[in-house]
Every structure is written in structure tokens, then in C-alpha cells.
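Input.
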Amino acid sequence: MGTESALAKSAGASSPADARRRDLNYAQPMHLVQILLPLFDNQRKALPHEAYARVRAELTERFGGLTVYTRAPAEGLWKQNGRQTSRDDIVIFEVMAKDLETRWWRRYRHELEDRFRQDVIVIRSQAMRLL
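Output.
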């Protein structure tokens, strides 16, 4: 069965997975963009589930896919005023993008900072290539 399946694929049989693979250009450089979203606002009040659902829908619509790390919240630590250490529990949303539209990401970051009641939300990117 495995050999027949491989032969059928090489003969031109198509599946949804084959179509997704054709859409990905493995040689083209891409960007992995990560958004670090807090679970609590600055007053330690839990943020509503709907806020995360909205981000999921927006990013999936714009980029065609999304990975969200929510099972075990990550912990963010940073120094404020060089003295006091602050802490956030965060989840990470990430997308792969062919082009890095920095203006769009800057606007989206400001929008998320308002929605999630944060002074700063970290959105970071790194160059990547599919293997």
C-alpha cells in the first residue's frame, strides 16, 4: 500500500497536502514572526479569551496559518528602572510570512497594545527557510 501510494503521487495524484506543499516555496527566504501576548493586564487582571480568539482569526486570515503556544505559558522577566524585576505570563503566536511588512506590523502592535492594555507588546521576527 505504501509503495502504491508513493507511485500514485509520483504519477500526478493530488491531495490537499500535496496542494499545500506546492504552495510553499522551500527555496525562498521567509520570516518567522512571533507575538508575545500577556495573559494578564498591568493590574494583573486576566485578559478575556475573546481577545486571543480575535488575534487567531486575524492572523490566520492574513497569513493563511498560525501556530499558538498556549499549553504552558512562558514567563517573561525584565528589569524596570534598572532595579525592580517585572514578570509576565505569556503565550506566543507565530506566523510565517514571505514578506516582512514592517509598517503593517507596527500598526498591528500598537493596536494589540491598546487591546491588551499593555505599554509594550513584543513582536519579533527572524529570517528563516523551510527545509
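Helices lie at 2-10, 16-23, 49-63, 102-115.
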